[in-house]
Amino acid sequence: MSKPELLHLAYVDGKNRVRWSVQSPNPLADWSRPAASEIGVEVTRSVIRRARETHSTFFSPPYQDDSGPNADNGSPFTDLITPVFSDDRYVGAVLARVSLPELLRQTVTPEFGQRYRIALREESGSILAASTSSPAPDDEPRYAIRVPPLSNGITVQASPFRQRSPVLGNALSGLVVGLTLIVMVTLAALARRDVKQAQVERVLRTETAFRRAMEDSLATGMGVIDRNGVLRHVNQAFVQMTGWPADQLLGKAPPFPYWPPDRQAEYQSKLAIVLAGLAPASGFELKVQRPDGSLFDARMYFSALLADDGEQLGWMSAMADITEPKRISEQLAAAHERFTTVLESLDAAVSVVADDAGDELLFANRSYLDLYGSSPAGHRKWRAALPLHAGIGEVFDAEVSRWFDVRTRNVRWVDGRDVRLQIATDITERKSTEELVRHQQEKVELTSRLMTMGEMASSLAHELNQPLTAISNYSLGAVSRMKGGGISTEELLPALEKTAGQAQRAGNIIRRIREFVKRSEPRRRPTEVQRIVEDAIGFADIEAAKKGIVIRTDVEANLPPLDVDPILIEQLLLNLLKNAIDAMDQSTLRKIDLVVKRQDDMAVFSVIDRGSGVSELEHANLFQPFFSTKPEGMGMGLNICRSIVEFHHGRLTIERNPEGGAIFVFTLPLAESNEAAEEVK
Predict the structure, then answer these.
(1) Tens-place pLDDT, residues 286-313
(2) Of the CATH numbers 2.40.50.140, 3.30.565.10, 3.40.50.620, 1.10.10.10, which one belongs to the domain with range 523-681?
(3) How far, in Å, are 151, 367, 373, 399 from residue 370 at the CA level?
(4) The pTM is what?
(5) Is the Cα dihedral 274, 278, 279, 285 positive or negative?
(6) Rounded to the nearest 5 degrees, what angle is found at the Cα of 501, between the Cα atoms of 496 and 506?
(7) For residue 260, which phi and psi values (nearest 5 degrees)?
(8) What phi and psi values does residue 39 have, to the nearest 5 degrees?
(9) Does residue 661 come out as left (phi exceeding 0), alpha (psi in the -120 to 50 range) or beta?
(10) C-beta of residue 215 within 8 angstroms of C-beta of residue 222
(11) What is the rounded CA–CA span in Å between residue 145 and residue 121?
(12) In DSSP terms, which residues pair with 301 in a beta bridge?
């Protein structure tokens, strides 16, 4: 404070309370505003408000202050008020108390003061300060000019002392005016500079606040290190990410606090690469240690920090927390490895091609490569062997002599293309097993039919004996009559016709037995329902008649042909009818009903008996192999019956008969087409 006119400086906060005060060494400055006091002068408070609102510097109106210990304390005063802002927020103001008499005394030189009386005058005409104590004569000329930086209405007035030479007086007056103009221009320039500086500072504060807000809003931790590797700046995200306070980071040289102790040598070498200007564009991956000892994965990138003239000031670093992305990446890699392991371990051949033509093999697992190598030929071959528009089918590849279950579908590939995924499972062993099972099933069915014929042998012999006896009797009678010569043609013809009828009857029985027991491949073909029913009952009636049981049939009229193997269905019906006959040994109502009805595209057969029925235990195990309710039974009959029905895509179930006994119900497919009807004819 080397200016004598500046008596003291004071800093007031936003509530106009004095926070600190500095006194000038000037003898007049024997008093200053004490700390914690409050600015009570309303004029000064209003100027502070004006400076705060306009972000500019102002002089307060002149005022007297007689509160000091001496009467001659430099009054009147004016305060130069400069507002103080932090991040564009008003925090207080600096007040510089200026003594107007001392300001005038220091400004006017002794030579100028000997010739002119210089005074600061208010608009009301009162003198605030003057270079001499004597008043100017009323008849002396006066020159006055307004001083813009000071309060409105204050002017500088110059009046010459009486001079012997008017020319000299006029010259001095001109000099005063010139000096006044210089002072005014200087003060105006200072005021403009202060205003411009305040505007520049306001723009800088706004720009700084904007940049700091942008920096703090980033999720990336930003830091600045100088050319010696010392950390000079970190943003809020860096502090939050690492957990270290800014005051424990700034000014620190390597090793930094967030470096794990066991990795400091490694990170020191990486920092040396950065300081040498060789940092990779991909950055460095590192472990970061928080104050609590926990670690997280991060990736740090570096770029040169340059001044306007191109000089390198240091390096800007950007730190990103990659803990979660790294965890997800590791999980995806593990999932991909598991998926690849599963695909490679499959016995099925998996392949993906770019389109139906199979021009590009996009993926193939080990099973496919073992069969066809890296060529899409196998994929094309399987696709071509499938029926048109079919996505599933069984294909035999003669080149490798294998059967494959092929399943194909369109999927979206990783690059957005529509591709075809194809999975071919080797079913050669299954096909061989199925063929073996089929042969064994045929043997079982044949054995069952032979056993059925064996069980009915006595009844069949009795049934055959009747037409054979009749044929013998008719033949012997005709021979006797012919030997006696007493028979005419008209009398012989009826006997021969009856003989032929009995022979046809015996032939039909033999035909049915032969067809029933002969070994043949299962072959489904259109077959009339009535024919199957008649053939089956033709056998069953022989056994039923011996036991006095009547078999009644109720076949719906105009039923379409069945799409079945007639021998197997005849065996099925005969087994069920025989079971019904055996179950009615102790029944009083001795009749069996065979009902055939249509239900949608299926024929529903119901074999209804009035026997002993089926218990809960028997019902649960009735269709299991080797389970039988007969002491001499093998337990295969109903199991074979179910296999025959399922071979024809039907269902076999059992129900309780409300009249007593059981109802066996099975369904068979109908062959509804003109071709089927013609084939039956």
Answers:
(1) 889 999 989 989 988 998 888 777 788 8
(2) 3.30.565.10
(3) 101, 5, 6, 14
(4) 0.35
(5) negative
(6) 125
(7) -60, 140
(8) -70, 110
(9) left
(10) yes
(11) 10
(12) 318
